[in-house]
Amino acid sequence: MISSILMRIARAILQNVLQQLNQLFQQIEEQAMNVIKAIVQQVVAGAWIGKAGDAFVEEMMQIALPGTQNIQSSVGNFGNGIKKAQEIMDNAENQAMNIIKNATSGFSFL
Fold first, then answer.
1. What is the pLDDT confidence band of residue 8, given thresholds at 50, 70 and 90?
2. CB atoms within 10 A of CB 80
3. Are 29 and 72 in contact (CB under 8 A)?
4. How many CA atoms are closer than 13 Å to the CA of 59, on its beta-carbon side?
5. Which of 5, 14, 58, 105 has a 20 to 30 Å separation from 34 between CA atoms?
6. Spatial contact of 21 and 75, defined as CB atoms under 8 Å apart
């Protein structure tokens, strides 16, 4: 039953990591993307007029926002990889339990 305990610990660790990734994903959205969008909106609304303001908006839209989205995408992909690893662990545990059940089904322990 040590393996069962280890599997529970591994699952708990994976769940914790997934929760942290979800929090990171949300923080990127709230603290980076929304801030960049708000600043761009202010500049477009007239807070910074001229070629420099236009260049700033262009840079934010072509570099900063896509870069932030790439980070967010990477975090999401990492989370998907962890979920896949958890599925593999669960399947392996189920297969092992089935092998043990089948191997011991013919024996009676009295």
1. confident
2. 12
3. yes
4. 8
5. 14
6. yes
Higher-confidence position of 67 and 107: 67
Alpha-carbon gap, residue 35 to 29, rounded angstroms = 9
DSSP one-letter string for 51-75: HHHHHHHHHIIIIIHHHHHHHHHHH
Within 10 A of 68 (CB to CB), how many other CB atoms are there? 20
| pLDDT tens track for 35-67 | 999 999 999 999 999 999 999 999 999 999 999
Are 41 and 106 a contacting pair, CB within 8 Å? Answer: no
- Residues 6 or more apart whose CB falls under 8 angstroms from that of 16 comprise none
Q: What is the pLDDT of residue 39?
A: 95
Residue 106 DSSP one-character state: T
56 touches 43 (CB < 8 A) = yes
How distant is the alpha carbon of residue 61 from its chain centre?
Answer: 24
Degrees, nearest 5: CA angle 29-33-38: 125
